[in-house]
Amino acid sequence: MPSIEMSRPSGTRDQSGVQVIERAARILRELADHPDGLSLAQIAERVDLARSTVHRLVGALERERFVVAASRNGRVKLGPGLATLAVAAEPDLVREVHPFLARLSREINETVDLGVLQHDQVLFVDHIAAPRRLRAVSSVGSAFPAHCPANGKALLATLSEVELRRLLPPRLERLTPNTITDREQLLEELEAVRREGIAYDREEHTIGICGLGAVIRDAAGRLASISIPLPGQRFTGNEQRLAETLLRTCHRIDKALGSA
User: How far apart are CA 184 and CA 180, in angstroms?
Assistant: First the structure.
């Protein structure tokens, strides 16, 4: 005997789908404000949802790599899946800036990167590798903690002290013995970055790799940073020449983008 299926009206399904998206977005925004991660109970309390609902939504977000484990005790944080979406959101900027990156790379014969700030990380959206056997290499879509590489520091320096204190914890992750882990010390360095227009990474993200970074801005106010990562032996003694070349390139880009 044929069975009878009671289907929900399509409008109800649409509303349910919208509600799921809204709830997932609330979870992602809450995690964006807590870079060290939150437990499911903490998320449930902050977004005012049942823990079972949060568990189901976080599971779906984990499968898409939009959130990942932040600790062994169940905390989660924003994941690399969001980086792919962020890269896709910047196609015009990448396309317009790429020729300048290529010219800069040829001029100094070093690797050049383009990055944007994603919460407390710098996301690489373009990369030109130096034609050298010994070189610094990253990849488009990768993300580094912003407090140690030069391009991350350059972008952090565009934020106010209030924003920085809200964004960065008092103790920062140590990646090498040279990493600045004290927030107050980093804030002092960012003041110098604002004055000079250039940020430096002295083996703070990766041992053996140093770098310089500076910010560019388009007419719409979008920010990105250009960095030159290179082996330490080619950095020491060449800082001024590299800084002048980088700043000159950034000025050309700002003019081309209509912000200078």
Answer: 9
pLDDT per residue as tens, the chain (260 positions): 444 444 445 454 455 678 888 888 888 888 877 777 889 999 999 999 999 999 999 999 888 888 888 777 788 887 767 666 665 555 578 888 999 999 999 999 999 999 998 888 898 888 898 887 777 767 777 788 999 999 999 999 999 999 999 889 999 999 999 999 999 999 999 999 999 999 999 999 999 999 999 999 988 888 999 999 999 999 999 999 999 999 999 999 999 988 76
Whether domain 84-257 has CATH 3.40.50.1970: the reply is: no
CB 204 within 8 A of CB 178: yes
Distance CA 217, CA 260 (A): 9
Distance from CA of residue 23 to its chain's centroid? 24
Please state the pTM of the whole predicted model. 0.70
Pick the CATH number of 10-79 from 3.10.105.10, 3.40.50.720, 3.30.1380.10, 1.10.10.10: 1.10.10.10
Contacts of 130 (CB under 8 A, 6+ apart): 105, 109, 110, 111, 136, 230
